[in-house]
């Protein structure tokens, strides 16, 4: 970046504001231009300072973080990163904030758990480049009725996503029918947030969506999200496919890692796999996606125009891993066209 990213920190705790500020100021490409203790102070600070990015506490006095986020998005659209506790309420409201237009979220540290503030500088710089119009686009809902000829056959869909993944996953999974092929997902997100995400997606869309468990069979009509924490999701290399949940260190800085998920597909009958790279920063999964394509898998990448952050899809595309780039609104249809037993000729 040619000039520092200007950040406003909004949190009712002076201690937390100081901690966030100290972490951000370690990065020379970031400038903390102000702090606010509640949304009313923040409103005036945004008017006076015009920050590039706002970090916003989910639970705030006088006005909830969600309500204030809604006002920001309507009146003065600015990239917002939510800073949340690891409680069930904090996680649920963080997912709701991402659906409402926040760019990303991080977890506050608590005794015995580091949280995600170490990732905040990178997220702030990515947020400064984010496309804010995206949340205004309607998310496709599951088709009311799929053609009677659609049969998923013996196919498997793998999806990797990161920043912007809540919207992207909603768009893709919302376009799949109840008899879709089994889908496995590695979404970069704190462990406690992932369970809330799975529940919210399951309540909204036709497939059954849940956190993956070790040994669970991969069956049509089900979507399995990597559990996160210190656990990666892979698939078994023998049929019938099952979920393989393994403990491990972060890969490319992430757990769950798209690289680990996609790499497992290389030995799991790759010609029957459709791999999809959605929005996100960094290049997690690009190398494994290339290996999948070289082994015969079908590979799709989200295009730049519809990606909140064109990092992971770009890295995969530039590596030669992406067979077709598609806008987000076309991704579900492309998956169905590819996996339709009648069209593919595979069973």
Question: What topology emerges from the helices and strands here?
Answer:
Blueprint: E1 5-10, H1 14-24, E2 30-36, H2 39-49, E3 53-57, H3 65-75, E4 80-84, H4 88-100, E5 104-107, H5 120-127, E6 156-161, H6 165-173, E7 183-187, H7 191-204, E8 208-211, E9 222-225, E10 231-235, E11 243-247, H8 258-265, E12 273-277, H9 286-294, E13 298-302, H10 312-318, E14 324-326, H11 328-339, H12 341-344
Parallel strand pairs: 1-2, 1-3, 3-4, 4-5, 6-7, 6-12, 7-9, 8-9, 12-13, 13-14
Antiparallel strand pairs: 10-11
Which labels suit this protein?
single chain; 347 residues; alpha/beta; Rossmann fold; 2 domains; 7-stranded parallel beta sheet; 5-stranded parallel beta sheet; 12 helices; 14 strands; elongated
How many strand segments? 14
> What is the N-to-C succession of helices and strands?
EHEHEHEHEHEHEHEEEEHEHEHEHH
Alpha-beta classification: alpha/beta
Radius of gyration: 20 Å
Helical segment count: 12
Silhouette: elongated
If classified by CATH, what would the architecture of the largest domain be? Answer: 3-Layer(aba) Sandwich
Pfam families: CheB_methylest, Response_reg
EC number: 3.1.1.61, 3.5.1.44
Subcellular location: Cytoplasm
Catalytic activity: L-glutaminyl-[protein] + H2O = L-glutamyl-[protein] + NH4(+); [protein]-L-glutamate 5-O-methyl ester + H2O = L-glutamyl-[protein] + methanol + H(+)
């Amino acid at each position: 970046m040619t000039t520092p990213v200007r950040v406003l920190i909004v949190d009712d705790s002076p201690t937390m504001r100081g901690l966030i500020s100290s972490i951000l100021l370690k990065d020379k490409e970031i400038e903390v231009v102000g702090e606010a203790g509640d949304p009313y102070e923040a409103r005036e600070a945004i008017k006076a300072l015009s920050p590039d990015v706002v970090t916003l506490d989910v639970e705030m006095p006088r006005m909830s973080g969600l309500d204030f986020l809604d006002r920001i998005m309507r009146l003065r659209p600015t990239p917002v990163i939510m800073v949340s506790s690891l409680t069930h309420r904090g996680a649920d409201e963080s997912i709701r904030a991402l659906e409402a237009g926040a760019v990303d979220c991080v977890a506050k540290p608590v005794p015995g758990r580091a949280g995600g503030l170490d990732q905040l500088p990178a997220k702030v710089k990515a947020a400064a480049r984010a496309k804010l119009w995206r949340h205004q686009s309607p998310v496709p809902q599951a088709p009311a009725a799929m053609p009677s000829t659609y049969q998923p056959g013996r196919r498997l869909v793998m999806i990797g996503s990161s920043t912007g993944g809540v919207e992207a996953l909603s768009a893709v999974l919302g376009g799949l029918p109840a008899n879709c092929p089994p889908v496995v997902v590695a979404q970069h997100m704190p462990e406690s947030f992932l369970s809330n995400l799975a529940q919210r997606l399951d309540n909204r869309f036709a497939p059954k969506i849940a956190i993956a468990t070790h040994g669970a069979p991969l069956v049509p009509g089900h979507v399995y999200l990597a559990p996160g924490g210190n656990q990666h999701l892979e698939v078994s290399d023998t049929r019938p496919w099952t979920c393989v949940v393994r403990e491990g260190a972060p890969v490319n800085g992430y757990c769950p890692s798209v690289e680990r998920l996609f790499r497992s597909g290389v030995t799991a009958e790759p010609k029957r796999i459709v791999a999809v790279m959605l929005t996100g920063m960094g290049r997690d999964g690009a190398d494994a996606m290339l290996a999948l394509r070289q082994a015969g898998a079908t590979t799709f990448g989200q295009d730049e125009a519809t990606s909140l952050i064109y990092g992971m899809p770009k890295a995969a595309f530039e590596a030669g891993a992406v067979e077709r780039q598609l806008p987000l609104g076309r991704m579900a249809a492309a998956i169905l066209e590819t996996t339709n037993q009648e069209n593919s000729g595979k069973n």
